[in-house]
């Protein structure tokens, strides 16, 4: 008589592994959706915390990393003044310094993960898009809340990444919006920063 016990136990174990993987995926997707919903409702601190939980679970989760950098960016944007001495405001804002450190760390992490993935899969649409978004968050922080003329390397990398996405998938709405909107605004901001001294000089001459 054939003994089916070991076979049945093996099959049951395999089913449980698959079920556990499915449950984990479902939980991850639900938490990511919750984090995205929090962001859309301007609960940026909650968004950053949820995204951090996802990234700790999966250190290479680029969607969570991109979302967290965005949430940290918006927290900084809310805390820093639109005009005035931005460096002074940053020094006087205790939470800003911590948020900035976290933002830069998360940005570097995301860029490192994305670039490593692209070495093995250069045409991966999702990775290209998320790298572009992470780069744009960095550029936006520098030219916006911090009013610093830096981030050109990230700007060009973002443009290259988003162009690659749109070359593969012209209907990629989020990539097109980021490419046409944010990159153009960042370029205009940068040109404005470059031209400001010349405009002041021209005004003094007149």
How would you characterize the overall build of this protein?
By secondary structure, the protein is an all-alpha fold. The chain has helices at 5-40, 44-57, 62-79, 86-92, 94-120, 125-143, 152-168, 173-205. The longest helix is centred in the N-terminal third of the chain and has 36 residues, at 5-40.
Give the strand content.
Answer: under 5%
The residue fraction in helices comes out at over 70%
Profile the largest sheet: none
How many DSSP H or I helices?
Answer: 8
User: Rounded to an integer, what's the Rg over CA atoms?
Assistant: 22 Å
Order of helix and strand elements from N to C terminus: HHHHHHHH
User: What are the low-pLDDT stretches, counting only 5+ consecutive residues below 50?
Assistant: 10-25, 187-206
SSE-based structural type: mainly alpha
**What is the approximate shape?**
globular
Straight-line N-to-C gap: 105 Å
Overall pLDDT level: 81
Secondary structure: number of strands: 0
SSE arrangement:
Layout: H1 5-40, H2 44-57, H3 62-79, H4 86-92, H5 94-120, H6 125-143, H7 152-168, H8 173-205
Can I get a quick summary?
The protein is an all-alpha fold. The chain has helices at residues 5-40, 44-57, 62-79, 86-92, 94-120, 125-143, 152-168, 173-205.
Keywords:
206 residues, mainly alpha, 83% helix, globular
């Amino acid at each position: 008589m054939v003994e089916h016990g070991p076979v049945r136990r093996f099959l049951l174990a395999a089913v449980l592994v698959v079920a556990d993987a499915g449950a984990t995926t479902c939980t991850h997707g639900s938490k990511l959706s919750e984090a995205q919903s929090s962001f859309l409702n301007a609960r940026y601190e909650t968004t950053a915390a949820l995204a951090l939980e996802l990234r700790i679970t999966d250190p290479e989760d680029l969607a969570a990393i991109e979302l967290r950098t965005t949430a940290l960016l918006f927290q900084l944007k809310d805390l820093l003044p639109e005009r005035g001495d931005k460096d002074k405001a940053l020094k006087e804002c205790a939470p800003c310094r911590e948020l900035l450190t976290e933002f830069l760390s998360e940005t570097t992490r995301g860029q490192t993960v994305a670039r490593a993935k692209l070495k093995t899969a250069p045409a991966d649409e999702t990775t290209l898009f998320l790298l572009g978004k992470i780069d744009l968050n960095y550029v936006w922080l520098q030219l916006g809340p911090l009013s610093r003329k830096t981030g050109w390397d990230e700007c060009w990398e973002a443009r290259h990444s988003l162009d690659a996405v749109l070359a593969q998938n012209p209907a990629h709405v989020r990539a097109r919006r980021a490419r046409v909107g944010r990159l153009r605004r960042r370029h205009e901001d940068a040109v404005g920063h470059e031209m400001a001294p010349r405009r002041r000089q021209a005004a003094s001459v007149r």
